[in-house]
Amino acid sequence: MIGTLTRIKRFFWRDINVTSPWVVHVKTGDRKGAGTDATVWVRLRDESGQWTDEIKLSSFWHNDHERGQLDSFPLLTAHIGVKFGELDKLEIWRDAFGIGDSWFLDVITVENIVTRKMYHFPAQRWIRADTHYVFNHYDTCLPQFDQHREQRQQELEEKKRMYEYVVHHPGLPAQVRKLPEDECFSDSYKWDIITHKVQFIKDRKFISLTTGSRDHWESWESLTSVYKYNMPVPQSKKDWNNDIWFGMQRLQGCNPVLIRLCTKQPANLRVDADTMVRFLGQSLQDAIDAKRIFMVDLKILENLPCAENRRVCAPIALFYLDKNRRDLLPLCIQLFQQPGKSNPVFYPSDNPYTWLLAKMWYNNADASYHQSCTHLGFTHLMMEGVAVCTHRNLSPSHPIFKLLAPHFLFLLAINTRGLAKLINPGGWVDRTTAIGCVGMFELIKRGCHVWRLDTHAVPPVEIAERGLTSPEILPNYPYRDDAIAVYKAIEAYVTSMVEYFYDLPEKIAEDEELQTWLKELVRSKEENGCGLQTRTCEADKSRRMGGQNHGHRLRRHVRTNQKRVRQMQGKLSHRFIND
C-alpha cells in the first residue's frame, strides 16, 4: 500500500498544479455492495481545533469510490490553509445520489507530502447517507472517552441484529445464524477460488482419462499416478512407511498437539516386557523414569458412530527416544482401548505388513481427530462464536476490535460454505473419510466438552500440561519451538497495546463494551452466549456469569506489567498500512 500511495503522490505532485502539500487517500472496502455513486465530502481538523471548509472528494471524469478501489484527492490551498497544524480528527459524509449509493469505507489516509507524515483514519464501516461521521486519528478509543457515543451505540445495536447466535448441531460451538453480507467473500477472493477449482477439475478429468477411473487403487504406482499438474507428488512419498517419519509426524505434522510425556504405564496397555527391553535396552518403567517414553491416547474416539457402519479405532501408542535422544520412534500400538486377545499390541518387530497396517489404522484415527477437532472444531467453529461476540459487543473503534478483526477475515464465509458443501449429508466428508459427518459432529462435541480457552488456546500452557516444555525432555519438537515463539511475539504486541489503552485499572472497570464482551464470551449457549469455557470459570462460577471478576484479573495483570509504551501510534500506523 505504501508503494501505491507513493506512486500516486508523485503523479499528482508532478502533473497537477497543486499548491497544497496535502493529499487525501480513500480506500473503499472490498466487499459486496461496498462501492458507491454518491458524492462524498470531508472536513479536517487540526490539534488547535481549526476546521477546514467542506471538501468534495471527487475527480472529474473518474468513477471514484468503487469496491476495493484506492482513490487519491490532492487538496488546494483553498481547501486547507498554510497554517493548518497536526491533523487529529475528520468528519465525513455522503449524499444518496445514484442507484447504488451504499458505501463501505475501509480507511482514509491523509498525507502531507512535504513532511512525509501520514494520518490514518481506519473507519471500517458502512457510511449511511446524510449521516455525519466523526473519526479521531486512528479511530481507536475506549467507549468512556468517545465524544460520539451515540453514533457508537447505534452501530452496535445494528450489529446485534446482523450477528445472532445459533447452534447448528447439539454440542457444537455457537455460530452465526445468517451470514451477513459484510462477511461474504470479496470478488477477488471468490474469483481466486473459482479459477483454482476450474483448474483442479480440468486436471482431474485429464488424469482420469490417462490413468483410468477407479474406485480404489490396485498398487502403489496407481496411487502415485494421480499426482500430476497442480497436485505434485508429496515429498513424504519416499519416507511414508519409515518409522522415523512416523515418529516425526507426532512432532511437526498436521496434528502435533497430542503427544505427551508418559509418566506411568497406561493401565489398559498390556505390553510384552521382553520386547520392551529389546527395543529400549532397559525396562519400560526404567525408560519412563528416564523420561524417554511418550504417548498418544485417542480414547476420545472410542465407540464413535461412523457413516455407513464404518469403524475407526481408538488407539494408544507409545513412542521412545533413541539412546542419543535424537529420534522419536514408535514403540507399540494398541488399536482399541480395552486389552484382550482380539486387541493385540503391535510392535515394529512384527511382520512388516502387519506393522504397516497398524500404523495406517493409527494414522487414520489421528487424521479423524485432526480434521474434526484440531482443525474444524477448535479453530474454525470455536473462533466463529468469538467473531460473532466481538461484532456484537465491541465497536469498530475499540482497540480490542482493531486487534481481532483482521483475524476474522472471511472466517464466517468459509465456515458457512464448508458446512453447506463439505460437511453435509452425502458431501465430501461422508464420501472420503471413515467417520463421515455423523462421526465428525460427535467428535467435535466430545472435544468441545473438554476444550478450555485458558489451556488449549495458550500454547505454552497446553504444551506444559503435556510435559513437553523443556528441550531436554524432547529435544526435537518443531511445533513447540515455533508455537511458543510465535505466541510470545503476539503476546508482547498485544500486551503493549492493552497496557497503552488500559494504563489504569479503572479504565477496565469503566469500559462497558469490554465488560459486556467478556460476559457474553463465557455465557452459556442456552442463554444466547458464545459458550466459551475456561478452567478459571469452572473454579468459580461467579466468574463465568459476571464480568467484574474478569476485570479484577485483568487489572491485576495490568498492575504487574507497568511497562509504558512509546510511539504507539507508530505501531498502529504500521498495522493499518499493512492490513
Name the structural class: alpha+beta
What is the overall silhouette?
A: elongated
Unreliable stretches (pLDDT < 50, length at least 5) are 8-18, 542-551, 553-579
Amino- and carboxy-terminal Cα gap: 9 Å
**Mind telling me the C-alpha Rg?**
29 Å
Mean pLDDT: 86
Question: Treating each run of at least 4 consecutive H or I residues as one helix, how many helices?
Answer: 21
Number of strands: 16
- The level of helicity is 40-55%
Approximately how much beta-strand content do the residues carry?
5-15%
Report the major sheet: 5 strands, antiparallel
Spell out the blueprint of helices and strands.
Blueprint: H1 2-15, E1 22-28, E2 40-46, E3 55-56, E4 70-74, E5 87-94, E6 104-112, E7 117-121, E8 125-126, E9 133-136, H2 149-162, E10 165-166, E11 175-176, H3 187-211, H4 220-224, H5 243-252, E12 260-261, H6 273-280, H7 284-289, E13 293-297, E14 316-321, E15 328-334, E16 345-346, H8 352-393, H9 399-404, H10 411-421, H11 428-432, H12 436-450, H13 453-456, H14 459-465, H15 478-501, H16 505-509, H17 512-522, H18 535-539, H19 541-545, H20 548-560, H21 568-578
Antiparallel strand pairs: 1-4, 1-6, 2-3, 2-5, 5-9, 6-7, 6-8, 10-11, 12-13, 13-14, 14-15, 15-16
Helix pairs in contact: 8-12, 8-17
